[in-house]
TrEMBL record:
This is Glycosyltransferase RgtA/B/C/D-like domain-containing protein. The keyword Transmembrane applies. It holds the Pfam family PMT_2. The lineage of its organism: Bacteria, Pseudomonadati, Pseudomonadota, Alphaproteobacteria, Rhodospirillales. The keyword Membrane applies.
Length: 223
């Protein structure tokens, strides 16, 4: 029910947000990145536009594609996508809170985030920080599930982690640090296994880390 209400709120308000100071740059970057994909790398204009090619183009490309598919002003399309990404963040926070401390904790976490003006405002206009935070929340959720289900993590969690990590890397290369919990958990289990203590279940986190790497989407144009 809360998810439906959030969707209604996004659809009802996304046109009311203005244009941020650097948004024209990201609009053009997204257009060039989309052309790079559509021409299978033949159109290389994305690498000649200022220094933005040093940043991931996942969000800007998706926003441009959405604007092409829907009868919306390009900036309105970005607002709509931003609101939906912010909504995905609320869902991730709820699931994460529920995973750690039950449904009440998840609901409280969502309410606190909804009442945070910076989150709600930036969700509609910030093409980097909020999408990266959302991807980070999903990465954290899936890593917790994987570590708790070792030595046989569910494939849906591995694929989910791969997609979330790919989205994070497609926004900022620093997203690689989001794998720290899984890497540390796997290393700890591996050391326990070598020392002959415990069941050694968590060492397979390293294998889970390798498998989810195969699921990461290519969200960053490469030279």
């Amino acid at each position: 029910m809360l998810l439906i209400l959030g969707l209604v709120a996004v659809v009802a308000t996304f046109r009311g947000y203005g244009i941020s100071w650097d948004e024209p740059l990201h609009l053009e970057y997204g257009r060039r990145a989309l052309e790079w994909y559509l021409t299978l790398g033949q159109d290389r204009g994305v690498f000649e536009y200022q220094n933005l090619y040093l940043y991931g183009a996942a969000y800007d490309t998706a926003a441009t594609a959405l604007g092409e598919l829907l009868p919306l002003d390009p900036y309105a399309g970005r607002r709509l996508l931003g609101g939906l990404v912010g909504l995905a963040g609320l869902l991730a926070v709820f699931k994460l809170g529920r995973e750690l401390a039950g449904p009440r904790a998840g609901t409280l976490a969502v309410l606190l985030l909804v009442l945070t003006p910076l989150w709600m405002g930036h969700a509609f206009a910030n093409p980097k920080d909020v999408p990266f935070a959302v991807a980070g929340a999903w990465c954290t959720l899936y890593q917790i599930r994987i570590l708790r289900s070792l030595p046989r993590p569910a494939w849906r969690d591995l694929v989910g982690l791969g997609v979330a990590l790919g989205c994070a890397l497609g926004i900022r290369v620093g997203g690689v640090i989001l794998l720290a919990p899984l890497a540390l958990g796997g290393r700890s289990g591996w050391r326990r296994r070598r020392g002959g203590r415990g069941s050694g279940r968590n060492w397979r986190g390293l294998w889970a880390w390798r498998r989810q790497g195969c699921c990461r989407p290519c969200c960053w144009p490469g030279r």
